[in-house]
Amino acid sequence: MGHGGGGALSAELVEHIFAPAFGGETLAQLGDSAAVTLAGARLAFSTDSYVVRPLFFPGGSIGDLAVNGTVNDLAMRGARAAYLSCGFILEEGVEMSVVARVAEALGAAARAAGVEVATGDTKVVESGHGDGVFLNTAGIGLIPPGVDLRPQRVVPGDVVVVSGDIGVHGVAIMSVREGLEFGVEIESDCAALGELVDAMLAVTPDLHVLRDPTRGGLAAALNEIATASGTGIVIQERAVPVPPGVANACAILGLDPMYVANEGKLVAFVPREHADAVLGAMRSHRLGANAAVIGEVVADHPTMVVARTGLGGTRVVDLPIGEQLPRIC
Amino acid sequence: MGHGGGGALSAELVEHIFAPAFGGETLAQLGDSAAVTLAGARLAFSTDSYVVRPLFFPGGSIGDLAVNGTVNDLAMRGARAAYLSCGFILEEGVEMSVVARVAEALGAAARAAGVEVATGDTKVVESGHGDGVFLNTAGIGLIPPGVDLRPQRVVPGDVVVVSGDIGVHGVAIMSVREGLEFGVEIESDCAALGELVDAMLAVTPDLHVLRDPTRGGLAAALNEIATASGTGIVIQERAVPVPPGVANACAILGLDPMYVANEGKLVAFVPREHADAVLGAMRSHRLGANAAVIGEVVADHPTMVVARTGLGGTRVVDLPIGEQLPRIC
């Protein structure tokens, strides 16, 4: 299960099996989406499969995830999603009303994100060889001129900003899956980030990298950037926005919110001179209202992420091995 | 199971559930791939999921299918595939060596087809909730200027050409799945058709429509075109190239080769004045060596496909309800 968790085991699978087998240069960039050139234009191109359980959860569904997840992967390249493809793998016997509800959620999420579902496919497998509904989406969008978002551009001095509360999606899924109650119902933060990214790029196209911290949480996203950029990252633990419901749930379950998945948040590495203006633009958008500076990039301890704790200590924030909770997306 | 078979039940699912839910104009075109406009360029965009059993079969594997299937969907718009995405859904416990073999087959097929695997994703589901390896690929490619392949362009007088022997892929899968022996081993015809299509378009960009007759076979492809164009199609049954091994296997199993899936064949609707030249170009390519004219488009019996039998009779070739053999691709 760990190989699907977005952590160290996933990275091994890509590095040792997929990248050598496929051999392309674009795949080797290993971003949330690929930047490719076609007809002289720079396109972002990305895919994700969605196997979340349950199919419907507080704040969203597999249909919302399938749109927003892929739209966000394109947004992390600075691209507004233009077209989505959509592949259904249905398990024999799944209620047609469930398929219809998933399709309606997917269609509504696409309209909300301003992206068109242009092409699709359906396969059916025998009962016991699938799990209700699996979805895959791929997306394409134009990367605006002058925008070049990739971890290799990160340099010491960059300011690390998150767009809002972390850990919400993972805890929302966990609460329904495990039948846990944490006093308040926590709804997934699942959302499309294209408009927020546009608002940030309107301040300056010179953002260095964006990442949406999904599987493996903020910890995995920061570690991938530290490794790819060869820089060190220092996080102020107290500055990371964790809502009380998530903090309580994590305390009860022995989880670290830094490792819990998000589906409507991003982390941005911003040149210091633009940090205040970008933060202001984020806070003016409903999906960035709780944006916060959480740390900075340093020349010390290259490839390593460390957190300064509330008590003045320092701890290393490792890349997780797998995902704490399987099938959250 | 029938809803995944590419026949009437699949069409119902798309018409009554997916198209209304997604609501886009592009999806409503319902071709093998969508034609979309981005940055002023016309792109073909397509996706398919692959759930074939077994993963490896005579003449190919799920990795070959995942490349060639999507490359061919783009080729049916006249586009050479430029980039592919690739999503793996792995079942917990699948041997890593199997995943590696699939990835290597996929990489080799991509290199053979001249397409780059640019982006990917892996999910893992618990044992008993998947079936070894499911794959999804999506692809993008440029549609050359002047090329406009769609069933609405088909008119009475058009000549119907197939690129070679039909029914081979389906029988190859059936022979290994059911443990049947038909005297000779039949290998899948799985192949990428981009180069063959380029050779045809070099004769004239004015082909009317191309279709690769996969699930539901030649019968489903012809019925889709008859319905979308509002024309009638007449096939000369004796002109349809069916190799003896396929004919024997179908006779034993009570199947009609017209309904058996192909993975390296196409059917073309060609203006009569270009038919000889296009047929010549096809026969000059190794994947079209056995190309044949099998029929023509008529003004009679609109939306209906009929076959003239060897005995001088006529039979209606219906749209199949589902697929005779599930999980062939």
TrEMBL record, chains A, B:
Occurrences of domain PurM-like N-terminal (ranges)? 31-143
Source species, domain of life: Bacteria
> Which InterPro entries does UniProt cross-reference here?
HypE, PurM-like_C_dom, PurM-like_C_sf, PurM-like_N, PurM-like_N_sf
Please name the Pfam families in this protein's record: AIRS, AIRS_C
Q: Which SUPFAM superfamilies does the entry mention?
A: PurM C-terminal domain-like, PurM N-terminal domain-like
Ranges for domain PurM-like C-terminal: 156-301
Belongs to which family? Belongs to the HypE family.
This chain belongs to which protein, by name?
Answer: Hydrogenase expression/formation protein HypE
